[in-house]
Amino acid sequence: MDHRTVVFSAVFPVLSLSHTTPTPVATPDLGVTVQGAAFGSPYIPRQAELHDSSTHRQVKRTIAWSCATRFLSLDKVVPAVPRILHRTREVEDALVYLLAGEGKTSEDARGDRREGEEGLCDWYTNECRLHFANNVRPELDELWADEVKIGCAWDALSETQRVLEQVQNVYLEPFNEHILPFLGSGATTRSARPSRRDEDEAERAAWKFRRDVHVLFAHCVAPRRFSKTLSYVLYDAGCRLFRIYTRHDGVQPSAIPENTTEVRQQMTTLLQGLERIGLGGESAQKAFAHAMHKLLDSFISSHYMKVDWYDEKSVVPHLKEWIKDGFCPLVELILECLRCEQSSVLPTEVTAWQEMALGRLGRVRVDNLFDFVIRWDRSKGAILDIKEYLKVAGAKQHVTSSFSQQVSRRLLHPGATTTYILNVYIFIIRSFHELEPKGVLLERVARPIRRYLKEREDTGRIIISSLLTDLSDEAGSKFSSNSELSYEIASEMVKPLTNLGQDADEELNWNDMNWQPMPTDASPEYKKSKVEDVIWFLLTLWERDDFINELKNILGDHLLRCTDPEYEKEIRLLELIKMRLGDSNLQAAEVMLRDVLDSKRINATIRAATDSQVPQAFSTPEQRPRGPRTPNARHPRTPQPRRGAQLSSHAPSTPAALAGPTLNAQILSSFFWPLLRDDEFRVPAEIQRLQDTYGTNFSRIKGMRKLRWMNALGSGSITLSFADRTEEFDNLTPWQVSVVYAFQAQPGEEHIAAKVGKNGEGIARNVAQLEEMLDMDETLVRQAVAFWVGKSVLRETGLDTYAIIETLPKSDGKAKADEDKAVAAAELAAVEAAQATAVRSQQDLFNEKRDVYETFITSMLTAQGNVPVSRILMMMRMMMAGGFPFGEEEIAGLLGEMEGEGKVIKVGGDVWGMRR
Amino acid sequence: MKVTIREWNAVAAWRWDMPDDDVCGICRNPYDSTCSKCKFPGDECPLLLGECNHSFHMKHCILSWLKQESSLEKCPMCRQPFKSKGQDATSAGAEQPLQAPDSSPI
After folding, report:
1. Where do the coiled-coil regions begin and end (chain B) (predicted)?
2. How large is the ipTM?
3. Which CATH architecture describes the domain B24-87?
């Protein structure tokens, strides 16, 4: 023993140092020399006599101590059952002496023990401790030294429990049998009945010993590891009891359903055992709480709580039921096993747990809310779950933030097409209407989407053209995935108009018995929408004026292409917009619609007038019956749904109409229409004549007005008669007709036309010739030529030279080559046709005025030196006649092109200057 | 090859056959547009050409001007007595009722 240990043990008693071992039995009993007697005299009194004699107390105690401790000391090997000791009279006397008699270590008034004396209880406790440390602990350490594997958690716990319980029994038996009885019995000597104080003392001693042993046990198993293992075991039991197969620990459940009664029995036994050996205390309760937490989570992610895709109902009632009838009983059972202070669950706690579970379920659902939204309709079950969840405090906040995050990550990025975003937005509107009919959440969630949609250029176009699309016909082809049309918008349009117009002065409507105050959490710009009105949300995306401008452009284009003679959808759309946005500023749209409707009537009137005049005034050569024309070229024509179709159907009654083409005109009030493309070129002569006649008649009917034909717009149907075949084409653009028309033999060319070329080719013309003949732009000529090559009507015979294929080639090779070229050209033509819209785009306008802008910039840079783009823009906005409707981007683009031409130079940043 | 045109759908824009000063002297809207009260141009908002070669939107512009006492039936532009250029005015006026059924499509 070094010095340090001695000092330490003086303050904190070290068991192994202070604990005394019983005196060996073999030690000869020398007796004690009594005062006054000679040392070693043969008259030393025997032990039995000691009590009576007035031997020194110290001596007597030592003897009793030795006897008692020898009796009580524990064997090295822990027996399976507590050994039964029979105490001899001698031992009993010693025990009585030490515990209740004089030898008792009494705490005197000063409160400190007699120096050097140790109580028997303390000694026995120490004995147990040492015994435990030396003999039992190594065995347990082996069990708990390493992380307890999931698979052997049950075994580890039950083994520990078994060992400890056994040890505890061994320790307790002597204590209960041989120490406790004497503790209380001391009183009998003094009074007839054991006083209360002595009983208390015995109880206290028992309690203290038990506690000491339990502390011993608790320290021998690593507390964290134990708590983790216990928690796992409880969780495992829960999962098995409730048959939850998706578990946090990743253990695959056995295929055979567990016998729940058995599991329950096993768990109860284990818990009660643990409680008996003192491991059921606070740490076990903590572990239990932890296990229940995980069990709840597991249950929520288990198959019981799957989204109900079939019945589209909420699973929340099931959850609540389970908490009440499944979870609570389990908790109560465990509480009882662990002997907690409160072993029954209060109703308020049940409610609280239900809410907690609902909160967790809600969070799980909200994490996938985006997926549910885009599968709206079928995902109604999930949405209803979240609806329940919204009742939980703080849920709305969470839904908003989580969903906004999902939207910005998954929707609002350049990779998503505008159509897709619009569709999703509609789904959001619909599902959130179910989620929260008041619309506060929707308003919050939709704000970033609306802002984003506003930034996209094509949003307006897609919305309006989708609104104008007919849902019923060819739905499959139109709404393919890459299409620009939104099926959802179109289907909204089909829904009957809901009651509107009440929204005015809603707050002041005193007769509204269904009036409700604004939701408390509504933002200032919150507007209550009474109906789930998707179109209203879409139409209010922009400022009204911007929207109407866009509408004007799209409607213009649409009306010119429209095939419905009654314009039902268009009228409906206009009414719809009027109802939602009010009818001011919609004049242009109304005029446009009126124009196309009026045109039909004007057509009829003028036709009647023309027909009556034709026999006298217009018997031009073209009106004479045509040679190769067969009647079946005309009659089998399928009834076209185009405007004026009904006019032409009764037209053949007069001979004049039979002879010439039918001219249907759309007369536009150009002031109200968007800028339309007006490429100038010559239309076929007969059309020209018809148009002139029409124009004259129009001026006659509508005094003081004249017509300007916009040849780039409209369409034609023609029949081509070749040497070997006849083909019909409908819906051609005017320039396509004009170009193919120009391939006919002109006066003086008949002889060329008569001799067919070696490959069956007719008249050939090159692009330049066509341009000159038709006064047409080169681009248009090329586009038309490409179209006809694509239709196997023309063939490129030389550079830029095309010839009519009068007879189709017979040989395969030639036909194949033609076919290939035709396919390529058809693609080209299709691409170009897609770009050719009736309404002129901003870009077209810009290109048209490019020269003016260029001159302006040049003179500005010359006069003012180097100037930044923003200043150029400002000056142009101020100075240009007719305004400058473009932005910095266009100017920068123009400057870039000018730089390429070597006219200007970039000085740095956004500043440009003249090149010198 | 022979091209036979069966049907031709053409598009045309109408405009008033007027000298180039483009706006009505009273409402300052272009002739091709409407006066500020009318909704549809053309038949519903015809022009009236005076003998002084000044023309105006008829219904709500020049007629209501002429109704005022202070106008003294003079052209607001040149202060000459306003008389419609005979045949134009009458034809426009006369055709109005005839055209009426045509021009109310909706």
Report:
1. none
2. 0.78
3. 2-Layer Sandwich (3.30)
